[in-house]
Design brief:
Elements (H helix, E strand, L loop, with lengths): L2 H4 L13 H31 L5 H24 L3 H23 L1 H11 L7 H25 L22
C-alpha cells in the first residue's frame, strides 16, 4: 500500500483555459472547413451523376475535398491548442492571405461569374466580389496578428521550465 493513498490526496491536472480568440478562430475555421468540404462533395456528386469517367473537374473537386479535410484537422488542433496546429494554422493563414490577394486581382472575373450565377445582383456584382475579397483579406490579417500575440497559449516561443515528469506530451 502506497503512503500517498492513505492520506486521501487526489491529484488533479489543471487544464489551461482556452482564450476567447482561439475559440472564435477555431470555430470559424472548423465551420469554414466543413462548408468547403460540403461544397466539394456536392461538386463531386454533380460530376459523378452526369459522367462516371474521371475528369479534370473530378480531380480538382477531390483535391478540394482533401484540402478541406486537412484544414479541418488543422483547425481542430488549433481548437485543442496543439503546438503543431499553431504552426500549421499560421501556414494556412499565410496561404489564405495569398489567395485573398489573388482574389483581389481577379475581382472583375469573379464579378462576371457572380453576375451570371445570380442575375439579380448583376448590376452590383463587382462591388459584391470586391467586398467579399476585402472581408476575407482583413479576416486573415486579423487572424495572423492574433496568432502572433497569442502564441504563448500554445507554448510557441515560451520556455517550459517544469520538470520532465510534469510535462504533458500532446501530439
Amino acid at each position: 500500500m502506497s503512503s500517498y493513498r492513505g492520506l486521501g490526496i487526489q491529484v488533479r491536472t489543471v487544464r489551461p483555459i482556452r482564450p476567447l480568440g482561439v475559440t472564435i478562430i477555431g470555430a470559424i475555421g472548423i465551420l469554414g472547413s466543413l462548408i468547403g468540404l460540403g461544397i466539394t462533395i456536392i461538386g463531386v456528386w454533380s460530376i459523378v451523376r452526369v459522367n462516371v469517367e474521371p475528369s479534370r473537374q473530378f480531380g480538382l473537386y477531390s483535391l478540394g475535398a482533401l484540402v478541406s479535410l486537412i484544414a479541418l484537422r488543422i483547425n481542430w488542433g488549433f481548437w485543442e491548442q496543439i503546438k503543431l496546429a499553431w504552426w500549421a494554422n499560421l501556414l494556412l493563414t499565410l496561404v489564405g492571405i495569398g489567395m485573398s490577394v489573388l482574389a483581389l486581382r481577379a475581382v472583375p472575373d469573379i464579378g462576371n461569374l457572380l453576375g451570371r450565377v445570380l442575375p439579380q445582383i448583376a448590376a452590383s456584382s463587382y462591388v459584391v466580389a470586391l467586398a467579399i475579397a476585402i472581408v476575407v483579406f482583413v479576416y486573415h490579417l486579423i487572424v495572423l496578428l492574433y496568432m502572433v500575440v497569442a502564441r504563448a497559449a500554445f507554448g510557441v516561443g515560451v520556455k517550459d521550465e517544469r520538470p520532465l515528469w510534469e510535462k504533458v506530451q500532446r501530439n
